[in-house]
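Hey,

Quick one before I head out. I ran the complex with pyridoxal-5'-phosphate overnight. Inputs first:
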Amino acid sequence: MASELPLSSRARRTTDSPISYFVQKAIETPGLISLAAGLVDESAFPSEEIASVVADMMADPKSAKAALQYGSTLGYAPLRQRVLDLVRASDGIRPGENAATVANVVLTTGSQQMLYILCELLLDPGDIVIAEAPSYFVFHDCLKSSGARVLTVPMDAGGMCLDSLENLLESLERTGELDRLKMIYTVDYFQNPTGITLAADRRPKLVELAKRFSKHHRILILEDAAYRELRYDGEDVPSVKRFDTTNEFVIYTSTFSKPCAPGLKTGYSIVPTDLIRPIGNLKGSHDFGSSNFCQHILDRLLESGAFQRHVEVLRGVYRRKRDAMVGALAEQFADWPEVSWTRADGGFYSWLTFPDRIETGQESELVRRSVREGVLFIPGELAHVPDARGTLPKNQIRLCFGVEEPAQIAEGIRRLRRACRGMESVARSE
Ligand SMILES: Cc1ncc(COP(=O)(O)O)c(C=O)c1O
């Protein structure tokens, strides 16, 4: 008899994400409109710009060799400088005004790799991470692999509620658990999954709270700014990192996946100085450097301004999609005032809340009916972790407007409304 595979406890804690089911379903069901997976619009890829950059790069033997060779663990130095300049310009930081330098920048295989590396570096089983409720579910999976306890803070229209965070921090202090708290995680621009942005006046306060409660050790803020560039309305707001003037408390992480192309799978982070060496050591074991070729492509796209021009194009493309989604929601759900949704100023997502009695979980009647009607969404419960009482909100859904064309998005919402017909007054027990 074959003996059992000797998986590590970490591997046993690591499970397949339930999201895979929804991605698979979308692939195998023809005609299904997927408002589920948070993918990027394929028709808006900068293919021509990338083709021309690669042709130029390969035409010159010197640059071809440089791009095709291994790179360095922390990433291609010119690109590290460019991303630092990009973030500093967005934050209105003048030279000498903030402690972070190019030495604090790390390039990774997507920002996901940094999220994972941080879990490995900072978390032992039983350590605590505070996250928004709801939050980015793939990061929840990393936290689960690490054996971390996830405590959540509610959100309102201004993002993470800092009064609740403060109460939570005080209660951890009272119960003697503050020494297990390692990180506060926020997706602070057009959050995945709600589309909500952390209000400008909460940003310095968040840093202040992390500092104030850093009594046993430093409590780090992990600022996941994956969607920052994709703003369709209003002005950019400074990052949380902007208020970490000594560069000690905030890890800022972002990506070229959303504003350029996920196939390049390149993310970037600005991290406190004493984290650089541990990150370098661990990334050295992972891969001793992410794709050098992709980093060279991105460096050229940034240098020529093609990246910045492309972001402008994307803003127009996704703004139309966002408008198609919220327009269709307003039209279709006008007769059901108990239903509400977010209108994101950027990113890919709208978060829809049904009355409590409507269940949206993976096994729910609503999911079955929606698939029959030909539309798919992500059940909101997948973006939540159970609260202290073990309960999980089950009446929300995440709708992604990133992939489908505006007309399809509107049709998808019509199908969703059809799927709900007859459920308006159905009690949960029925
Ligand atoms: C909030 C958030 N953070 C990080 C990522 C990781 O993206 P990537 O690894 O492609 O940079 C994603 C991807 O969907 C995301 O939604």
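The chain has 14 helices and 14 strands.

Talk tomorrow,
K.
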